Amino acid sequence: MSSPAVVQRSLTTLPSRVRRRPVSWIPHLVLALGVVVFASPVYMALIGSTHDPSTIARGDMPLSPGQMMVSNYRQAWAVGEGMRVKTAPVRTMMMNSFIMAVVIASGKISISMLSAFAVAFFRFPLRMFFFWMIFITLMLPVEVRIIPTYAVVTNLGMINTFWGLTVPLLASATGTLIFRTFFLTIPDELVEAAKLDGAGPMRFFWSILMPMSITAMAALFVILFVYGWNQYLWPLLITTSSGMETIVIGITKMIGTGEAQTDWHLIMATTILALIPPVTVVVVMQRWFVKGLVGTDK
């Protein structure tokens, strides 16, 4: 065994960058600055939602919470109307947005997995042609497809319904590409072993592919949930009554009243409430989201 003196002498011969790794505070300072920049508007909205509209209108809003937090949030949540703002209650708009986001995320994942499964594991004529046709839709912006999609929804009688809000947005070329790329990494030996055990295509899909795709599904669910929650153009075209409006449409209509004195306390309270569901989804599913992006379980 080496003596303590020999060990100490060997340590002294190591390069200084190995023996001593100074902590660089520059990345931490940059991150802290970024947090301050992005969190400041949210904090000001939170503070503004606790004051009366006259305090906000005068421009002397303090940096500390006010005394009207409970009343402002109760009014926005249950009533949704102020002196100049007249919308549906926030609970109704948030429920509409939540249903839309969940259905869009779940539907996109389901359809993307099945289409990627067909393209990756089945051999049929024009297989790659159909895949590239799906991939080409990524090059088309939503505005290009908005008029024919609206015409189809109108002819089917789905205006101002949840079907009209969600069904046209269920297909996802991005999800198909992601799942196909993942499925191609599965070894052929696993497929052959499943066939030897008597597993059919759908049994292989449910029992093997889906458990292996949990992290990818979770990561895609977070992205698609936020995507569905933040939809603006399509709900603006489809909804014709206040009872079907989403939270993004409601906030936009609150701001766009054209009045000099807007009920900013209700707008800010509604904005803070609108942040809760997507932030909760991201925080709760953060671990699976990171695993799905980096592919640690693949």
Mean pLDDT: 81
Shape: globular
Strand content: under 5%
CATH class of one domain: Mainly Alpha
**What's the CATH topology name of one domain?**
MetI-like fold
| Backbone CA Rg | 26 Å
Compose a concise summary of this entry:
The protein is mainly alpha-helical and 298 residues long.
Textual characterization of the structure:
The chain is mainly alpha-helical and 298 residues long. It has a domain at 99-253 and 279-294: MetI-like fold (Orthogonal Bundle). The protein has helices spanning 4-12, 16-19, 26-48, 53-58, 69-78, 90-121, 127-136, 142-155, 162-166, 173-183, 188-196, 201-212, 214-229, 233-238, 247-255, 264-284, 286-294. The longest helix has 32 residues, at 90-121.
Protein traits:
single chain; 298 residues; 69% helix; mainly alpha; 17 helices; MetI-like fold
Produce the secondary structure layout.
Elements (H helix, E strand, L loop, with lengths): L3 H9 L3 H4 L6 H23 L4 H6 L10 H10 L11 H32 L5 H10 L5 H14 L6 H5 L6 H11 L4 H9 L4 H12 L1 H16 L3 H6 L8 H9 L8 H21 L1 H9 L4
Helix pairs in contact: 3-16, 5-16, 6-10, 6-13, 13-17, 15-16
